[in-house]
Amino acid sequence: RICVITLADAHPLLQSGKTIKSINYQISANCSRLQNKVSGKSKRGAQFLTELAPLCRISSSDGEEYTIYSCIRGRLIEVNENILSNPTILQEKPSTEGYIAVVLPKFEESKSITQGLLTQKEYEEVLLKRLNSSS
């Protein structure tokens, strides 16, 4: 029932030649995802996220900046502070140690959210179509 937010395999940051310069969880002057303090069984204090809520901004050495969005409604359980001191794990192990955040969707919404997700095979087919249409 939890969602681990990671970079997709096709994300530009995971393509060869990109180097991550910095990761910033400071979303605005008043909002830092690092200040998210969760306690207890009911996850008191967790920041509530919408689908379009930014989680962090990642800058690459070529000057590009990418804003990573939640893409899911729910409570922010934790952010991965390890990628701040070691941003290379975001590229080396994007689906394990290089995760960005953990989000807990509302129980009532979790089933409808998972029904709308693509399987790995469906995702690969989408990428293939995208690749074929751009070439």
From TrEMBL:
Identify a single GO molecular function assigned to this protein: actin filament binding
Q: Where is it localised? A: Cell projection, Dendrite; Cell projection, Growth cone; Cell projection, Lamellipodium; Nucleus speckle
Q: Which Gene3D superfamilies match?
A: 2.40.50.100
Family matches, as SUPFAM superfamilies: Single hybrid motif (SSF51230)
Coarse class of the protein's main subcellular location: other
Tell me its family.
Answer: Belongs to the ABITRAM family.
Name of the protein: Protein Abitram
> Could you read off the lineage of the organism from its UniProt record?
Eukaryota, Metazoa, Chordata, Craniata, Vertebrata
